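User: Run a structure prediction on this.
Assistant: Running it now.
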Amino acid sequence: MGRADDRSGTDDRSGTGPESVLTESGLPYGLPDFAAISDDDFLPAYEIALTEHLAEVEAIASSQEPPTFENTIAALELSGRELARANGIFFNLEGADSNPRRVEIARELAVRLTEHANAIAMHRGLFARIDELAARRESLGLRTDEERLLAQRHRDAIRAGAALDEAGQTQMREISERLATLTTAFGQHLLDDTNASAVHFDDVGRLDGLTDGQIAAARRAAVDAGRDGYLVTLELPTSQESVASLTDPEARRRVFEASVNRCARGGEHDTRELLLEIVRLRAARARLLGYESHADYVIAEETAPGPDAVAELLGELATAAMGAAHIELDRLAERAGAPLAASDVTFHLEADRRDRAAADAADVDLTAFADYCELDTVLTDGVFAAAEALYGLTFAERTDLHGYHPDVRIWEVSRHGEGIGLFLGDFYARPAKRGGAWMNTIVDQSHRLGTAPIVVNVLNLTEPEPGEPCLLTLDQLDTVFHEFGHAVHGLLSAVEYASQSGTSVPRDFVEFPSQVNEMWALHPDVVGRYARHHRTGEPAPTALIDAVRAASDAPSAHSTVEYLAAAALDLAWHRLTEDEVPDGPEAVIEFETRALQSAGLASDLIPPRYRSTYFNHVFAGGYSSAYYSYIWAEILDAETEQWFLAGGGLRADLGAAFADAVLSRGDSVDPVAAHAAMLGRPARIEPLLARLGLAG
């Protein structure tokens, strides 16, 4: 696709009032009519939706009928549909296509929505009805999904403070409202500082090693910023793709230091005081609710037994990973012929990977694989083709439908010939989009509501020049398959209640289906379909595919250590009590140092994947005390990969079994138990250790 005009900085559409947000659009599957919605429509729409939702809740709570599952729990599920519609629209826009007005709205909504949630969760009359049902749930004759929904609603209310006295509830409201403000501000500061930290170069020669497309993007970024020369923008993690490619050590150093120092240099975008207050308030909330720490509070709702079990897993992996990292770093230093700086590691790691591939297969250049990974072909003949072979899904692009930005593409998804929902792809980076990659749901699937899913994959690929292809690196290829795994989880949902649909599962399970989907990126039955040269159409040479697969399968201690370090940091911050939280911005980096040393993951050459000041997952996202979930879910993923391979790989019967047991069920069943039933036993850690090169 050519470069579309970026209209994200302003929104001058007049809109049609709050009804444009709250009313069904009449478009297929309830797709919002984004063109009819103005930013000025959102707050009036929320005013109406919040008021109506509270009235619905009040009617449920004040009913004179004895509480039943239908008139209380199911009724709550059916309430607030206009609010859900507004949230599905606005919060997709706020992350993927921000602008100053949306930033203002998000700040106001952070408090308003928290107040609203508190008013419902702490409603004495409503909680009394839920509590009564929970006390006699064994006699209610409920289905499994209904039992789980009742139990979840009861736990949600208690964890929100419903059982606290008046003083406790007042304190709970104050804490939650302040946290909503702080976490919203953290994310906005990070986006602003990431944009402001882009590294400027006058001389294109300093960008040697970058592809023509990356250099063109740097030039375009400079033009967009009103500057001459080239602007290398930053990605969300510490490790930057450009640093792994730049041949100039000084250029690498500048980009690397810009990345690791984000939001920690003072000024308006510094996040250190924000995160300290976030940690302190989370600890206070946990204490108020009877938990030792925020980590205990969070992990009580996950599949892991508790923080000690998580710390034990991270510790075991850290010992093995650091040992492997020392060997890897020594090899890289020998290759470089000089001591390494932290900004040199990923460059020499990538070069070492290419050298090893060339040694295994003469005259193979791994970077050439990108020429065979054009985005549209990867999507159509790779990602979509695998989903069709496994799950019977087909994708028809709907150019008659329009997303929230000109770059957004829309596909109608069918299964065995019947339409089941919409998939939106928003693939290219832009200043108004926060970094990283993620999946959103605009509409949740629900049999009770009669709604089909509308899911979005948001990525930050470099947009090509007009008429040029978007070619994917190996890491980007994995990301496309990973995020689509989340999308499939949402699209195949077949549950009664919206709150149990798709990815609405425990946080340390949610990454499992997406990680499984990565296995198909280089699977022989998939890669041969899409890996064709973007100009000639010739298939990728077998030797190149074999080398890429070997390089992909070769574990990198660096990537394992940087992930484990971030997970350990998250856990360390959130196991603190209020009194243990340090004071002052300088204490943030000091705490990081001590925490990594204590976890056995301190390395001058391998910083965490995210340092605290730009750890969006845990200080602005939903992963606080749960960043460990990627490795926890990978235990299930590694086992499932072996299950697929042992059964014959890309087979419809295996895909159907996986969909029926896991993907379609959401949280309507115990997801870990469902996975164990599919395997015929609980998952074991040995396949993961073998994958990471840490077995033994």
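Residues 1-13 have pLDDT under 50 and may be disordered.
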